[in-house]
Design a protein that fits this description.
43% strand, PKD_dom_sf, 5-stranded antiparallel β-sheet, membrane, disordered N terminus, Immunoglobulin-like, mainly beta, elongated, PGF-pre-PGF domain-containing protein, transmembrane helix, single chain, PKD_dom
Length: 394
């Protein structure tokens, strides 16, 4: 009949119908023998039960499914809309944009549009490319001072896009120390070099501000202190109440024999943890245990307390508060009054206490009594030895 689909049987038991375009029939379907599906995909077709088709051109496409069996025919239609692919939009951030060389900066990708390729230029002549989304965020270290323009180009099947930030990273030169020789001491070897009377400024983000260092080959020494939230895997926590874990990293030196480390702690933090400045201690991890370093309070201002600690070197360190136990209250004990055989000396530099006049009189009387008694005893003894001395004569 005109206007209707005309179907004919195939030798394998399938049925094919056609109108206004090609259609492809399948063989036997699931279940009954003679069942057949026909897909119209405009302009292609398929006789698979669950076919896959790729549209390469934008547009709206009508998809028709026709199903047949020995009992009859049915069909359904739906539209598929295909749009042009969208290129990505490049965008990125950095965890810090200025500091002292060497400066480590972490760049994070914030691009949109599902990029699949990332191409970075750090501005110092180095590039980083990847197609792995897990590695699209990268850390780069700037070794020299300068201003650096950073760019990120992202791409996908639809195109690419570039984001450029001019003079985005500012790196300043590390302070140049003016080394002074330390005097040699007989029998103890040379004293090495130190970074002048004010020491070396310390870069990074820790509480350590500067260090004085002894050793050799220190004219170009750089020390960086990085704050850490914990000591690290496999390392026990430092004793006390930690204020900050610090990884002190030296560079450009030959040997280091000792260091005096200057650091600060906010007074507000001390008050919050009910600590005094005298209870703050710097520790150094020696590879197996934490070692307490000799720590001295330098000064306390309105907002911060400054300390120095003496250390044999650098590495993982920690600033912590060691709460001291309160001293037990003591009850004053009465002091016994001096007896006749005890004497008390007047404090040095003070006049001796005055002796009452009556005391002198009593002492004088006692001397007279002793003198008279001595005279009588002597007289009695002489008479006993010479009885004739006491005989009466007419």
């Amino acid at each position: 009949m005109p206007g209707q689909d005309r179907c004919r049987g195939l030798g394998d038991g399938g049925i094919v119908c056609g109108r206004r375009g090609p259609a492809f029939s399948g063989g036997y379907g699931e279940g009954d023998r003679g069942l057949s599906d026909v897909w119209r995909l405009k302009t292609a077709g398929s006789n698979d039960r669950n076919p896959t088709h790729t549209y390469t051109t934008p547009g709206t496409y009508t998809v028709t499914l026709q199903v047949y069996n020995n009992g009859g025919y049915n069909a359904t239609r739906m539209n598929i809309t295909v749009t042009d692919p969208v290129p990505p939009t490049a965008s990125f951030t950095a965890n810090q944009t200025s500091g002292t060389a060497p400066l480590a900066v972490q760049f994070n990708d914030t691009s949109t549009g599902s990029p699949i390729v990332w191409n970075r230029s750090f501005g110092d002549g180095t590039w980083y490319n990847t197609t792995d989304a897990a590695e699209r965020n990268v850390t780069h270290t700037y070794a020299a001072a300068g201003n650096y323009t950073v760019s990120l180009t992202v791409s996908n099947a639809a195109g690419s896009n570039t984001s450029t930030r001019t003079d985005y990273i500012w790196v300043s030169a590390a302070p140049t120390p003016t080394p002074t020789s330390q005097p040699s001491h007989g029998g103890g070897g040379g004293g090495g070099k130190t970074g002048g009377p004010d020491g070396y400024n310390v870069g990074g983000d820790s509480a350590v501000s500067k260090v004085n260092v002894t050793g050799t080959g220190l004219s170009r020494l750089i020390v960086t202190g990085w704050a850490q939230s914990s000591p690290g895997s496999g390392i026990p926590p430092v004793p006390g109440i930690p204020y900050q874990y610090i990884n002190l990293v030296p560079a450009r030196f030959e040997t280091i024999t000792g260091a005096t480390i200057t650091f600060t702690v906010p007074v507000a933090w001390l008050d919050e943890h009910n600590l005094t400045a005298e209870e703050m201690v710097m520790y150094r991890y020696n590879g197996t245990a934490w070692e307490a370093l000799p720590t001295t309070v330098v000064e306390i201002t309105g907002t911060s307390a400054t300390f120095t600690a003496t250390s044999p070197g650098f590495g993982l360190s920690a600033i912590t508060g060691i709460k001291q136990p309160e001293e037990p209250a003591t009850t004053p004990t009465a002091t016994a009054e001096p007896t006749a055989t005890q004497t008390t000396a007047a404090p040095a530099g003070e006049p001796a206490p005055e002796i009452p006049l009556g005391t002198f009189a009593l002492i004088g009387l006692l001397i007279l009594v002793l003198a008279a008694g001595g005279y009588l005893v002597r007289r009695w003894w002489r008479r006993r030895q010479n009885p004739g001395l006491s005989r009466d004569y007419d």
